[in-house]
UniProtKB/TrEMBL annotation:
The keyword Transport applies. Its EC number is 7.6.2.9. GO terms for molecular function: ABC-type quaternary ammonium compound transporting activity; ATP binding; ATP hydrolysis activity. The keyword Transferase does not apply. This is ABC-type quaternary amine transporter. Residues 2-237 form the ABC transporter domain. Pfam families: ABC_tran (PF00005).
């Protein structure tokens, strides 16, 4: 557990970057510091590994006062990831990843072989290890940065805008893989970002800071969205708060049996199975949804192949977030949201109005919940 107690940082020019800040980052969880530019996020993070010394207050890790520890040793025991990966340009990628273990005296062969394993762990081809950082894409460099921070297997990781230097699609991939990795590794992480969506996606706990380095609110993401402490937090959270909160609200929704046809069926067979709106769901031989077809749009004598499919909607999972279920219905060409089980096979379809009924029933817990069709838990 990382604990900051009444921590203040005043820079020599008089700027108070962090003002009497107290914060606990629990073990094996991701605590995110988020806030507008200049609110003291980076300063706070760097006081944990003593790259910046607090003016007053205390910082402890597992009860040990970091100010009483040797700063270089402390830093080697804490993974640190920054924007762009912060790699040494004149060292190969694997040498970069092995940097801290080598410093700590690990034999070169062992350190390099571990570096290759780590590259794989963060989703990179170990063959990239022999390249130099400039020969990698931005997203690859950031993965290397994460691999390097993990190399000494530190229980604590500090991450400063680790995913911000890449485009939104790569960023999303990196975030998803990072969450998967954290699920396996369970590090104690403090992360800084200026992006509230990233904070909400990645944080177990989110501290919203305001300029001057004070905490406006510290809460779990769902709580933040549902009950922002004040106008500053509400403004910072931005639009669609109510809708985004549904992303954290998982529930079963009424499922309906959906007639399907296999890929390769004739258009005539598809027409016979289609609903009154003309749409029919196409599945493969494992009953994994492939998309929607409307036989009336297709030449009568043909068969259903991939080219016959309309762009499908998003998929929801049984018992998953209500936001995803609602989106599956709204984005489906037939307005019937496709819901799959844990293996990706069709479980049924859901309707937007029924998802909304579930939402309304949950918001009034005293009301008996309505259920039609078969609800799956
Ligand atoms: N070395 C320094 N000397 C004086 N003031 C500083 C110094 N470093 C940072 N500051 C000031 O301290 C405040 C907090 O800076 P910090 O970098 O911690 O903010 P931040 O929230 O990480 O910002 P950003 O999101 O823009 O990176 C800012 O007003 C900044 O100008």
């Amino acid at each position: 557990m990382i604990r900051l107690d009444g921590v203040t940082k005043q820079y020599p020019d008089g700027t108070v970057a962090v003002d009497d800040l107290s914060l606990t980052a629990p073990d094996r969880a991701i605590t995110v510091l988020v806030g507008p530019s200049g609110c003291g996020k980076t300063t706070t993070l760097r006081m944990i590994n003593r790259m910046i010394e607090p003016t007053s207050g205390s910082v402890t890790i597992d009860g040990q006062d970091v100010l009483a520890m040797d700063a270089a040793q402390l830093r080697r025991g804490i993974g640190y990831v920054i924007q762009h990966g912060g790699l040494f340009p004149h060292h190969t990628v694997e040498r970069n990843v092995a940097a801290v273990p080598l410093l700590l005296g690990t034999a070169k062969r062992e350190a390099i072989s571990r570096a290759r394993e780590l590259l794989e762990l963060v989703g990179l081809d170990p063959a990239l290890g022999r390249r130099y950082p400039s020969q990698l894409s931005g997203g690859q460099q950031q993965r290397v940065g994460v691999a390097r921070a993990l190399a000494a297997d530190p229980p604590v990781m500090l991450m400063d805008e680790p995913f911000s230097a890449v485009d939104p699609v790569v960023r999303e991939q990196l975030q998803d893989e990072f969450l998967r990795l954290q699920g396996e590794l369970g590090k104690t992480i403090v992360m800084v970002t200026h992006d509230i969506d990233e904070a909400i996606k990645l944080g177990d706990h989110v501290a919203v800071l305001q300029v001057g380095g004070r905490i406006a609110q510290l809460a779990r993401p769902a709580e933040l969205l549902a009950h922002p402490a004040d106008n500053f937090v509400a403004d910072f959270l931005g639009r669609d708060r109510g809708y985004r909160a549904l992303g954290f609200d998982s529930a079963s929704v009424p499922l309906h049996d959906e007639p399907t046809i296999p890929l390769g069926a004739t258009v005539a067979e598809a027409a016979a199975r289609a609903g009154s709106d003309g749409w029919v769901l196409v599945v493969d031989d494992r009953r994994h949804p492939q998309g929607w077809a409307r036989p009336t749009d297709l030449p009568g004598e043909g068969s259903i192949d991939e080219r016959s499919l309309a762009l499908g909607g998003t998929l929801a999972r049984v018992g998953g977030p209500l936001r995803v279920a609602l989106d599956a219905a709204l984005s489906s060409p037939s307005r019937r949201g496709v819901v799959v089980d844990g293996d990706g096979a069709l479980a049924g379809t859901c309707r937007a109005t029924e998802v909304l009924s579930v939402i309304e029933a949950r918001e009034r817990p005293s009301d008996p919940g309505e259920h039609s069709a078969h609800a799956v838990h």
